[in-house]
Amino acid sequence: MSGSLTCFLPMELKTLESLLSAYQEDFDHYLAELFSEHELVAFESKLDAIAAVSAQPMFDVSFDDFYPDPENEEDQRAFFARCRSTLVIENLPFFESNPFQVTYLNDLLNKFDEVLIDRGGVSELIFRDLYLAGLRRFKAIDTFTPKPKVVSILNSAARPLQPVDPIDFLVRDVYRELDRLGGGLPSSDELSPKARKILEAVRTERTSPDELLRRAGLNAKDLDDGLESLKFWLRRH
């Protein structure tokens, strides 16, 4: 899994450009929170090797120019007909040697409801979730086990919790954004249902990720996705 990708999306180009710009800024912020400047210098070659990503309009091609998945051809054809923009990802490094690329690509593709991906050559078109399932066999950023700042994500009456797993950092970031905003939160109507459940749970009491999972009534993947969505929503306000 390397090379280049063309991702087809139903959103308008301007919307995609804005989302991509915001994601790249958030990814840089995430790295700055996770690693010291000295550590980032040590990883400079891997960071520089992250593939170039650009938002582009739909070019003059038809669905029949590609190799569909025979078992999903009808769904892929219908989705392609709705696409209005493309995300072009060029010169991907080998995933085996670059956990930064794995995390970047995984988190970026998860920002969209659905993506149809062309891997080039004679590879069949593939929907986002199936592509990411293959990506999961490669190491991501959290395998570096960095030493972050000691930050308690619980209230002062509870046992301080040192972030260790990626989910710990997400919870910490959400609490940090809530502290920044104080009580002045806008309407949460634009949030996804799972993000709203998490927001309601964390507004009443700060707790550990395990307890948050129980209170929000979500599975682990939905908790992770909801926290990511909630974090970026909070940062926009």
Summary, kept brief:
The protein is of the alpha+beta class and about 240 residues long.
Describe the structure.
The chain has about 240 residues and is α+β, with helices and mostly antiparallel strands. It is built from 10 helices and 5 strands. A 5-stranded antiparallel β-sheet has the order 2-3-1-4-5. It is globular.
pLDDT averaged over residues: 84
**Sequence of strands across the biggest β-sheet:** 2-3-1-4-5
Unreliable spans: 145-164
Q: Based on CA inertia axes, which overall geometry fits?
A: globular
Number-wise, the strands total 5
Query: What is the C-alpha radius of gyration, as a whole number of Å?
Result: 19 Å
Structural class: alpha+beta
Share of helix, binned:
40-55%
How far apart the termini lie comes to 37 Å
Please summarize the sheet with the most strands. 5 strands, antiparallel
Strand content: 5-15%
Provide the succession of SSEs.
EHHHEHEHEEHHHHH
Number of helices: 10
Topology record:
Elements: E1 3-9, H1 13-34, H2 37-42, H3 44-48, E2 52-57, H4 73-82, E3 85-92, H5 99-109, E4 116-118, E5 126-127, H6 128-135, H7 166-181, H8 193-204, H9 209-216, H10 220-235
Antiparallel strand pairs: 1-3, 1-4, 2-3, 4-5
Helix pairs in contact: 7-10, 8-9, 8-10
